Amino acid sequence: MTKKAIALITTAILVAILGTAGCITGQPDDNATETSILVYSGAGLKKPMNDIGRAFTEKYGIDVEYTFAGAGTLVSQMELSRKGDVFVSGGTPDYRVAQDKGLVGEPGYVAYHVPIIALQKGNPKNITSVDDFARPGLRL
Questions:
Q1: Could you say which DSSP state residue 3 is in?
Q2: Residue 134 and residue 70: Cα distance in Å, rounded?
Q3: Distances from the Cα of 45 to the Cαs of 50, 121, 126, in angstroms?
Q4: Residue 69: inside a domain, yes or no?
Q5: Digits of tens for pLDDT over the chain (140 positions)?
Q6: Contacts 24+ apart (CB under 8 A), 62-65
Q7: What are the backbone dihedrals phi and psi of residue 41, each rounded to the nearest 5 degrees, phi first?
Q8: What domain range includes position 74?
Q9: Cα–Cα distance between 111 and 102 in angstroms, integer?
Q10: Residue 107: inside a domain
Q11: What is the CATH number of the domain that holds 23?
């Protein structure tokens, strides 16, 4: 990933973190301070989220604490603890589960997934679209 792409993603997520802070509902933490936020994030996002957290802390002086896991585990943890500031889910269905349970407010979208087809070098099977997967005799 290029530095420009990382900077763009970092900025988008920082905006989302600031815009969604407090989205997790429930009783406020009596020990909460304005010097840290708790982020629930998908395990596959650990590296970029840690990088973003460092940049966020440098810029705003607020520490970012993470809980990384699969979406189901994160929703369960949010439901049990009733603590947290930001939920970065892997997709809309995961977020809706948390929303249906009253754990989060309205979402703010910061990224999207772009599906790709990874092919053997030179594309010897001449695959140009998903439709090609239905071609008779094609074996991958």
A1: H
A2: 32
A3: 8, 28, 33
A4: yes
A5: 566 656 556 655 655 554 444 455 544 555 555 689 999 999 988 999 999 999 999 999 999 999 999 999 999 999 999 999 999 988 888 899 999 999 999 988 877 777 888 888 999 999 998 899 999 998 87
A6: 62/34, 62/35, 62/36, 62/37, 63/35, 63/36, 63/37, 64/17, 64/36, 64/37, 64/39, 65/36, 65/37, 65/38, 65/39
A7: -140, 150
A8: 3-100
A9: 23
A10: no
A11: 3.40.190.10
Give me the amino acid identity at 79: E
Q: Please give the Cα distance from 56 to 43 (Å, whole number).
A: 19
Closest to 50 in 3D by CA, of 78, 58, 126? 58
Instruction: With respect to residue 115, please indicate whether it lies within any of the assigned structural domains.
Output: no
Is 12 in contact with 111 (CB distance < 8 Å)? yes
DSSP string for residues in 48-98: HHHHHHHHHHHHH--EEEEEEE-HHHHHHHHHHH---SEEE-SSHHHHHHH
Looking at the structure of the chain, the number of domains it has is 1
C-alpha 35/C-alpha 57 separation (Å) is 9
118: left (phi over 0), alpha (psi -120 to 50) or beta: beta
CB atoms within 10 A of CB 4: 8
The reply to whether 124 falls in a domain is no
Tokens of 15: 């905006």
